[in-house]
From TrEMBL:
Name of the molecule in the record: Cyclic nucleotide-binding domain-containing protein
Domain Cyclic nucleotide-binding: 11-132
Domain of life of the native organism: Bacteria
SUPFAM superfamilies: cAMP-binding domain-like
Length: 189
């Protein structure tokens, strides 16, 4: 149950063995069926959530329009880290596109453990640096590249998205219609 999250901490942010054992003892496994909502806008992130298995889409919703901003298909943290860290409400939604397993730990317990093992500041700083890099890349690509180029980059950098995510969700991520995506796919195949 903890192999994916254990691998994350061992490679991304090593804690001592005792710290990992205590951290993992507080995580709880929850199963969600497909189409379940994991996160809703205007709610607080009370738990740090780690996708153990399954597929999750993340999106914004405004005036009857959903705009996909990310997909999670590999084991990784899926919490809105900004809302989680600052204890503020999120503006994002997350929906299970398949059955999903999530490991979660209460926010206050997580921060107590980071203080106890004196690793909180570096973990939060490292997480925010990665988040900022991803956001910068997303914005740059969406503002400077055409949809066909962005789709070709997905084929190379995120082939699992192409395999597992419905095409209408990919079209929303690219900010195009499903019909336009179909034409792009036909042109490049």
């Amino acid at each position: 149950m903890f192999s994916a999250i254990s691998d994350f901490f061992k490679t991304e942010f090593p804690l001592n063995e005792h710290g990992l054992e205590e951290l993992f003892s507080h995580f709880r496994l929850t199963h969600y069926p497909a189409n379940s909502m994991l996160l809703q806008a205007e709610t607080k992130e009370k738990k740090l959530r780690f996708l153990n298995n399954g597929i999750v889409r993340e999106y914004y919703y405004n005036q009857d329009i959903e705009r996909n901003i990310n997909f999670y298909v590999k084991p990784q943290f899926i919490s809105d880290l900004l809302a989680f860290n600052q204890n503020t409400s999120t503006r994002k939604y997350q929906e299970c596109l398949s059955a999903v397993e999530v490991l979660s730990i209460d926010r206050h317990i997580f921060f107590e453990l980071l203080e106890k093992y004196e690793c909180g500041k570096s973990l939060v700083t490292s997480s925010f640096q990665k988040l900022l890099t991803q956001k910068e890349s997303f914005e740059y690509n969406h503002l400077t590249k055409n949809p066909e180029t962005r789709y070709q980059e997905l084929l190379v950098k995120k082939p699992e998205w192409i395999r597992y995510i419905p095409q209408y969700h990919i079209a929303s991520y690219l900010n195009i219609t499903p019909e336009t995506l179909s034409r792009i796919r036909k042109r490049i195949s």
